[in-house]
Amino acid sequence: QVQLVESGGGMVQVGGSLTLSCTVSGITFSKAIMAWFRQAPGKERERVALVGSGGTTSYANSVKGRFTVSRDNAKNTVYLQINNLSLEDNADYYCYCYNENSWGQGTQVTVSS
Question: Which contacts qualify for 96-99: CB closer than 8 Å, 24 or more apart?
């Protein structure tokens, strides 16, 4: 059974940086298409970054240049580095596996001014 566990969320100040991690078990991770989504209070969940099994990446326009998604197949882990955090980045962040249609439990990012 696939399991996704996020970590790395927390409280940071505007302009700071954070790296989220999502460790996956129960599947052949190297073949997985992985994505990061976020959901701010009162808003719909949106995809912010995706990394394919071959390492190809794509980003939402709103985060291009500040977010970097990467993967380490040896560690079964996908990362999301967030730079120059703004108040608009306040949200719960979730990783998602397209192959299994499975979500992690989420990790909260709180940005303070």
Answer: 96/4, 96/34, 96/35, 96/36, 96/37, 96/47, 97/2, 97/4, 97/24, 97/27, 97/32, 97/33, 97/34, 98/32, 98/33, 98/34, 98/35, 99/27, 99/31, 99/32, 99/33
Residue type at 96 in one-letter notation: Y
CB-CB contact of 102 with 96 (8 Å): yes
Hey, what amino acid is at 36?
A: W
pLDDT in tens, 24-65: 999 999 999 999 999 999 999 999 999 999 999 999 999 999
Interval 69-78 mean pLDDT: 98
Average predicted confidence (pLDDT) for the chain: 97
In whole angstroms, what is the distance from residue 22 CA to residue 3 CA?
10
d(CA 69, CA 74): 16
Identify whether the C-beta of residue 20 lies closer than 8 Å to the C-beta of residue 82.
yes
